[in-house]
Specification:
- This protein is α/β, with parallel strands linked by helices.
- It has helices at about 15-25, 40-50, 55-60, 65-70, 85-95, 125-135, 190-215, 230-250, 275-290; strands at about 5-10, 30-40, 80, 105-115, 120, 140, 145, 150-155, 170-180, 255-260.
- The strands form two sheets. Strands 1, 2, 4, 5, 7, 8, 9 and 10 form an eight-stranded mixed beta sheet that branches. Strands 3-6 form a two-stranded parallel ribbon.
- Helix 1 (about 15-25) runs parallel beside helix 9.
- The longest helix has 24 residues, at about 190-215.
């Protein structure tokens, strides 16, 4: 059994692919003894470190429109559309009260200090607080205050945080990049029950887009008239992270990189959990088979 340092990248809803990746890695006999993650990567990594990934997977695949509507707590502070307290209360219940330094494996959540404009490695302190800081997507979730420092999404400065794992005693480093280029060529059969749920969930996604448009009035430009600010914001984040990733990858290269295509789903299409989990599993299987 080979031990691995697992690096989980940011990329919004595509982060569900991390679940499938982890399941396939373990199926092939790899032992994860170190995790570093940004944004959704930090969340999935924390759940894995606490042995709660299956519980989380069952939860997200079981959500219906009413469940999600109850979890969305809109913020009127002007610093983020969603407060995030409700959804994180569920996550905190899953993860429990635990300090990062007390985990069985090495763990790093990467966040961005929005005032000092610095990348921050959260390797000590409350695990849920670290995840919440790392996943605070600018303008969507309100920033997280940790020790007087206001933190937002780690993907702003480091969408694929390989550096925190360099000193770890693992056989290999496996990185999961959610901004891979190239179209999706995998066909995924979605069960009827999941299709029905996703259809209803998409209705909420559309409502979220409308809510975002209220914060950011839409400009009249013919080439983007079919795009709301929700879509534009997501694509802008993707562009920014891809540019940052090129610089980061030049300094640190993993032994194995698993690329999830950036057009697999939109940044905020969280109703596509089933497809992304299966896509992560399929791509990982292909990578490991040809290794």
């Amino acid at each position: 059994m080979k031990s691995i340092s697992l690096v989980l990248g940011s990329g919004g809803a595509r982060g569900y692919a991390h679940i499938g990746v982890i399941e396939e890695l373990e199926k092939h006999g790899y032992e994860i003894n170190s995790i570093s993650g940004s944004s959704m990567g930090a969340l999935i990594g924390a759940l894995q470190a606490r042995g709660k990934l299956q519980e989380y997977k069952d939860w997200i695949l079981g959500l219906d429109l009413l469940d999600v509507a109850k979890l969305v707590d809109f913020s009127f502070s002007g610093v983020g559309i969603i407060q995030g307290d409700k959804v994180f209360s569920v996550i905190e219940e899953m993860i429990g009260e635990v300090l990062i330094e007390d985990l069985d494996i090495s763990y790093t959540a990467v966040a961005t200090d929005i005032i000092k404009q610095k990348e921050v490695w959260l390797q000590k302190g409350n695990l849920v607080d670290a995840v919440r800081a790392s996943i605070a997507i600018p303008s969507i979730f309100t920033p997280k205050n940790i020790g007087g420092r206001y933190m937002v999404d780690g993907g702003v400065l480091n969408p694929l945080p390989i550096a925190p794992t360099v000193a770890d005693e693992s056989d290999i480093t496996v990185a999961v990049n959610l901004g891979g280029v190239g179209g999706v060529s995998h066909k995924i059969k979605v069960p009827k029950k999941q299709k029905e749920k996703q259809s209803k969930m998409r209705e909420l996604y559309i409502e979220m887009r409308k809510k975002t448009d209220e914060f950011f009035p839409k400009e009249e430009k013919s080439e983007i008239e079919n795009m709301g600010m929700f879509d534009i914001l997501g694509r802008s984040i993707d562009i920014m992270q891809n540019a940052v990733l090129e610089c980061k990858m030049a300094g640190y290269s993993p032994d194995i990189i698993i690329n999830i295509p950036n057009d697999a789903c939109g940044f905020y299409e969280f109703h596509k959990g089933y497809e992304m989990i299966e896509l992560g599993r399929m791509i990982t299987r292909e990578v490991l088979t040809h290794r």
